[in-house]
């Protein structure tokens, strides 16, 4: 066994010695390895025409695919934008429908005047005025009667009648109060500063005077009743203009102050509701029977009742704010002003 092991050991040693390279003497320097010659590169052959055509076709296919992908992305984006716009429009339409529904339920509606049945004791709401007199009439007719009566009294007592015209024939009350305040200020300046000429004149083209005073009925007659006169005087720009002037020779400041106090304390002339009292003597029989059509319901009345119930149901099913509820309650309270 030892002979065989020695044999293989010897063979391995010889193989390693051969792989170690060429031998050299101990005194010689190690020889440098010979440089390797670079391998000669093979020149690339020019592609043939068919290869060029195939490459061009492949590039065209890639470019076409890229264009298709870009077109697809654009089309997809357009579709997304259209879908978003459609949803927004639908949302806006729903909001508008809700707003229209709220306006229909809670919006201001015109009052419908309906004639009462002929068998009622009173056929309408009428007014009377102790100052004007005459038969009872509707509100509008009575207002015109009072206005005509007041203008007819201007010849006898211009100042006091003009006070009543200012308070009665103008509206709203805020505008009337502003007019009274402005006129009172004019008079206060004259009464408190009788020696100042600038307080005795009012330029008619003044913006505040035109808006607060001249635009209301009865103001011209009031100024004339207080003693003012219209005169041509030089304005701020040097041109001649119309002025209301309280003459210097007029020193009746007590009457002027009395007119101011009357203007402040006056109230509008209003008509009173005619109660339509009827005195029935004991011997007269009272008609207690109701007409035959009293218990019958017409088609229009039934339709109106159904519409009213539908509106009430929609109103109760909707969410309402406190302001909406208060407005509805206030409207219900002012629905009936008079009872016949």
Please give the structural blueprint.
Blueprint: H1 2-19, H2 49-106, E1 127-128, H3 139-152, H4 158-168, H5 173-192, E2 201-203, H6 207-214, H7 219-226, E3 229-234, E4 240-245, H8 253-265, E5 272-273, H9 299-317, H10 322-333
Antiparallel strand pairs: 1-5, 2-4, 3-4
Helix pairs in contact: 4-7, 5-8
The number of helical runs is: 10
Overall helicity: 40-55%
Oligomer: single chain
Beta-strand fraction estimate = 5-15%
Q: Describe the strand arrangement of the main beta sheet, using strand numbers.
A: 2-4-3
The parts where pLDDT drops under 50 for at least 5 residues are none
| Shape annotation | elongated
* Class by alpha and beta content: mainly alpha
Radius of gyration in whole Å, from Cα?
54 Å
**Biggest sheet character:** 3 strands, antiparallel
- E-strand count: 5
Arithmetic mean pLDDT:
80
Distance between the termini: 147 Å
Order of helices and strands: HHEHHHEHHEEHEHH
Describe this entry's structure for a reader.
- The structure is a single chain.
- The chain has 340 residues and is mainly α.
- The protein has helices spanning 2-19, 49-106, 139-152, 158-168, 173-192, 207-214, 219-226, 253-265, 299-317, 322-333; strands at 127-128, 201-203, 229-234, 240-245, 272-273.
- The strands form two sheets. It has a three-stranded antiparallel β-sheet with strand order 2-4-3, with no helix packed on it. A two-stranded antiparallel sheet has the order 1-5.
- Helix 5 (173-192) packs antiparallel against helix 8.
Question: What is the gist of this entry?
Answer:
With 340 residues, the chain is mainly alpha-helical.
